[in-house]
Amino acid sequence: MTDTLLMKVEGLTKRFPGVLALDDVNLDIARGEVHAICGENGAGKSTLIKMLTGAYRPDEGTIAFEGEVCPALSPRKAMDIGIACIYQELNLIPHLSVAENIFLGREIFRSKAFDILDRKTMNTKAAELLADLDLHIRPEARLGTLGVGHQQMVEICRAVWADAKLIIMDEPTSSLSEKEAKDLFRIIARVKSRGVSVLFISHRLDEVRANCDRVTIMRDGKSVSTFAMKDSSIDDIIQLMVGRNIQNKYPKEVANRGDVILDVQGLTRKGVVNNVSFQLHAGEVLGFAGLVGAGRTETMRLVTGADPSDAGKIKVFGKDTTIRSPEDSIKAGIAFLTESRKEQGLVLIQSVEFNATLVKLGDFSKFGVLSLGRARDEAMKVVNGLRLKAAGLATPVGKLSGGNQQKVVIAKWLMSKAKIFIFDEPTRGIDVGAKVEVYRLINELVAKGAGVIIVCSEMEEVMGMADRILVMHEGRITGELSREEATQEKIMYAASGMEIRPAKAG
Amino acid sequence: MANTTQQPPENAGVTTAAIESTGPEPKGLAIPGRKQLVGDKLYQLGVLLSLVILCVIMSFLSPRFLTLDNLTNVAAQAAVSAIISIGMFLAILTAGIDLSVGSVLALSAMMMGIASDRWGFGPYTSIAICLGTGAGLGLINGLLLTKLRLPHPFISTLGMQKMARGIALVVTAAAPISMFPDQVQYLGSASVGGMPVSFLLVGVLYIGMWLFLTRTSTGRHIYAVGGNKEAARLSGIKVDRILNLVYTISGLTAALAGLVLAGRVNAVYPLAGLDYETDAIAAVIIGGASFFGGVGSIGNTIIGVLLIAVLRNGLNLLNVDSAYQTFAIGAVIVIAVAIDVLRQNVLKSGR
Question: What is the rounded CA–CA span in Å between residue A282 and residue B228?
Fold first, then answer.
């Protein structure tokens, strides 16, 4: 480990309307260091990366690179001074060869004036570079024919060729197999030995522990602590990540638990959801915790027929039910309140009434002719029940606040007369007051005997509202916790891929 | 492409009517819920106002504009375009397009001609064959989109445009067929109480379509699919079925327009309806529908149709070269779409 400083970040602060995304973040990276950043969802990791790559401007604080303060970092500038970033979605062109991708934008010309490329030199250089990093890839191979792992390594080569001094990797191993991940760390070690630093963001704590020199923990937009990996354990990291700041802001009421109303067995979609089984009882709020990308939303999409599943059985109210499309799931009495209201939940240009009545429009028509008055009356009843503060039923939902939009989505599904409600990130992007109303509504639903599944990335929220918590990691259920036994540490453990099963076992 | 507005020799036998009677549409048939969009309302008023202003200007520039004969002629031409525009409106409402309407019109009419002339079918059977051909071709357009998953209806209907035109030329070796029984000519040439039947037909179709779109669940589902396909699907709407229906209706209205055209000129010919899709698209967009889908009212489409018909007629009366006419229509389309984009941006930033 070298002790020369490459990058120093001081007092970095970023505000978005209503949110303090980064709050006085400090970070220093040494040359040739592999530095990890760990934190929960929403701790500010991605915002930090966006600042370091110049995508966002900081409101306060400085970023110094090689001793020089960079006040106006832009994506182009960041690249020029040697900061490269490898995102989860790779930025390569599948139709071009490996060499062409490596040299993309920094081509070697035979004649610059006539724009003639020197393919031969590029291929030889690429071959050298690949060999140097111990990669067995042909430079002439078409990129699209390579696996994801190899493509990622090509991207690393590209960064190295561009003379990057710092390579930022955002969840690089999330889409890799174990072997590919191993290869990646071998390459990272190589890159490191050339004096290049790596800033590594990962949810897999064991990986971080094994391959990084130091770690900076982020929580609630702050950098909480930085320490050398060899002095610490995974437990230490988790402790710092979750902190201890749960207040009782959840108006949870436990309802009577009834029979199993939804029984999912062996639900699988290749590469996304792997053999997921769970049961939901009437009167129960079942929470799905886990890190972003753990397969929770995907699981719910399979349950509700939004995506086709490869295997699995679903029983609704004790009856075997085939769910191939959203219609099937609606008929079975399942409501799916999607994570992105604007993209998947609402027709923004249409009115509150139009959206609220969308699912069960057929109920208001005789021989295909709508009874507009009846639909309006019903919608009015439900909307009033939700204390929806909109100008009226005719207001386009695109003009409403996030909280009110969510209420329209809820109204839509209440009108569908569902008995099973799946809320995906029910309170994302809505203000505190509206959140509490959503929680109350969930209480009301289970009190009336409905079953509710909530998928939330905020651990506090899951712990505050769920009667039982299932934790997912990479498409599998890795933990099941009752309301009483759940702690943030345990959830974090399971969310990082370590199994937790209750003693009783299910 | 030659653009001499492939008008066949006008059958001047059509009778009296004033331009007012071509607009039996109640104004401002906005679907419920969009009333708040003041900007949209202003735009619609603006289009109506443009039509009125255009008519006033034309009547000053050309003494022949405000004659019964001329207005009847405008309306008769507008009838064909108005009927095609119904299907086009639905396609654009679902964020799609139907480029095949002109060719579908021609092939449907040719099939009717062949059925009546060569196969000796009665008039009603021939009419049924005409409409069936149109609906069938439309359904194929829909299936190409929903089953074969072609990326955008632009592609599938462009293919259909060429294929249908090709077949229309082949079936009679490019020769026209004429002399139809009265029943076939009825829609295009008859009049009731001094009012051409084609006007009445347009009125009935527009009111019917308006009721369908606003008073039936299927109609609302069309708006939902156009406004947000994924939200519609997750709300249990059979999106594919809706799209198939939309393109089938578009084929059907194109065939119906073919029937009217055939009746008006008492002939069918394989190059009928050439370029008609352009006018229909322009009419729908000028009428305030959005290429982004989900927005628009059928009541305003008719205003767009009339605007274009008056513009074409006026330029004809003023002896403006057809090349300039083509230019003028193109400019109107660009302006209308530019306004559409502006409106969308305003809508988005309003959120």
Answer: 32
Contacts of residue B206, Cβ cutoff 8 Å, sequence gap at least 6: B24, B25, B82, B86, B298, B299, B301, B302
Residue B111 contacts residue B129 (beta carbons within 8 Å): yes
Pairwise CA distance, residues B223 & B294, whole Å: 5
Give me the CATH number covering residue B280.
Answer: 1.10.3470
Closest CA to B235 of B245, B243, B227: B227
pLDDT tens digits, B260-317: 999 998 999 999 999 899 889 989 988 888 888 898 899 999 999 999 999 889 888 8
**How much is the CA Rg of chain B, to the nearest whole Å?**
19
Substitution target from A304, A358, A367 for chain B, most B beta carbons within 10 A: A358
Tell whether B275 is covered by a domain.
Answer: yes
Contact A350 B224 (CB under 8 A): yes
Examine the pLDDT at A496 and tell me if it is beyond 90.
no
Separation of alpha carbons A104 and A82, rounded Å? 16
Q: Which phi-psi region, left, alpha or beta, contains residue A475 (left: φ > 0; alpha: ψ -120 to 50)?
A: left
For residue A393, the chain B residues in CB contact (below 8 A) are 33
Query: Which residues on B lie below 8 Å from A304 (Cβ)?
Result: 234
Can you tell me the ipTM of this complex?
0.77
Q: Residue for token digits 């401002």? A: B28
Q: What percent of chain A has pLDDT over 70?
A: 96
Least confident of A131-145, A166-180, B313-327: A166-180
What range does the domain containing B279 cover?
A: 30-349
Residue A379, token pair as written in the block: 């919608």
Q: Would you say residue B220 lies in a domain?
A: yes
Cα separation of A330 and A328, whole Å?
Answer: 5
Residues B300, B31 contacting (CB under 8 angstroms): no
- Supply angle C-alpha A117, A119, A120, rounded to 5: 135
B25 assigned to some structural domain: no
- Answer yes or no: do A399 and B36 touch at CB < 8 A: yes
Residue A139 pLDDT > 80:
yes
H-helix or E-strand spanning residue A442: helix A432-447
Task: Please state the rounded mean pLDDT for residues A435-463.
Answer: 90
- The alpha carbon of residue B282 and the mean position of all alpha carbons in its chain are separated, in whole angstroms, by 10
Of residues B78 and A19, more confidence is placed in: B78
Q: Which among B36, B218, B227 has CB closest to A347?
A: B227
Using an 8 Å CB-CB cutoff, list chain B residues near A391.
Answer: 36
Tell me whether residue B72 is in a domain: yes
Question: Could you give the number of structural domains in chain B?
Answer: 1
Q: Tell me the CA distances in angstroms from A234 to A184, A225, A467, A475, one per residue in order.
A: 21, 14, 27, 22
Beta carbons of B18 and B74 less than 8 angstroms apart: no
pLDDT of A249: 67
- Percentage of chain B beyond pLDDT 90 is 48
Picking from B95, B96, B112, the residue whose alpha carbon sits closest to that of residue B104 is B112
All domains of chain A in start order, with CATH: 5-242 (3.40.50.300), 256-333+418-506 (3.40.50.300), 349-416 (no CATH)
Tell if the CB–CB gap between B215 and A370 is shorter than 8 Å: yes
Which stretches of A386-486 are assigned E, i.e. beta strand?
A: 420-424, 451-455, 468-473, 476-482
**Distant-in-sequence, close-in-space partners of B41: CB < 8 Å, separation ≥ 6:** B28, B30, B35
**H or E element at residue B128:** helix B123-146
pLDDT digits (tens, 9 = 90+) for B21-63: 333 333 333 333 343 445 566 777 778 888 899 899 988 988 8
Q: What is the DSSP string of B285-337?
A: HHTT--TTSS---HHHHHHHHHHHHHHHHHHHHTT--HHHHHHHHHHHHHHHH
